[in-house]
Specification:
The chain has helices at residues 17-23, 28-49, 68-91, 107-119, 136-151, 159-171, 214-225, 243-247; strands at 9-13, 53-60, 95-99, 127-134, 179-182, 201-204. By secondary structure, the protein is of the alpha/beta class. The protein has two domains: 9-134 and 176-225, Undecaprenyl pyrophosphate synthetase; 140-173, no CATH class. Helix 4 links the parallel strand 3 and strand 4. Bound molecules: farnesyl diphosphate.
Amino acid sequence: MQSSALPKHVAIIMDGNGRWAARRGLPRMAGHRAGIASVRRVVEHASDAGIRCLTLYAFSSDNWRRPSAEVQSIFWLLRAFLRLQTARLRDRGARLEVIGRRDRLPAAALSAIENSERATADGTGLHLRVAIDYSSRDAIARAAFHAADALGPRRFMSPDLFGPMLMRSLTADCGDVDLLIRTGGEKRLSDFLLWECAYAELLFTDRMWPEFDESDLDAAIADFSHRQRRFGAVPEPAPALNSAVACT
Ligand code: FPP
């Protein structure tokens, strides 16, 4: 059993931008813009709190189904975020990495991503991963395809063999998710880090993503610190009351 105060790897499904905007009579774009402000706050706070890895779900492979004007706005905001925040990330020692497919991204977005990744490559602090055109099923299927080659004549597969292959192909050194947060009131994983969340602690909040702030992240971390993570084992028995006496 493990109980640890600080999750090493936090992943967030940032949901609720559109509803936040609709409740204010604003266009969905205004919700995404406000969502970017939340991203900035939460990234800086996670870095200050000493979280090693933060993975944000910015654009799923299914999000291509949205109206093209909304898709364009999201990529425009992503580029604006990278343009304005890359130097700040580098100054605080953060490293930015984008996970997901790159072959379908708009050229300008891809080039902004590559610039930011290069500029922050030496960061040893927070590892910020932004999932874009990301589908966990797709990531697993691709890693399985490459694993078949890597296996060679060995015809055997196990989670211990396959896990590192998946991590290497996509998720670098972040490993399993400790705490998964989803804002916006829905309770599902939406094809996000399915393998890596096998033993994640799940936290669903009704707060819309633009409302999510530093205190919400602190509350999520505090909640995590009270969870007992057993990973399928049983809790260790409490030491017997008279054991201290017996040892003296
Ligand atoms: C979910 O809200 C939000 C998105 C699908 C897009 C979020 C992306 C950004 C804010 C831009 C890039 C992000 C980074 C990390 C720089 P929704 O539109 O699904 O909300 P709804 O469920 O209320 O409609």
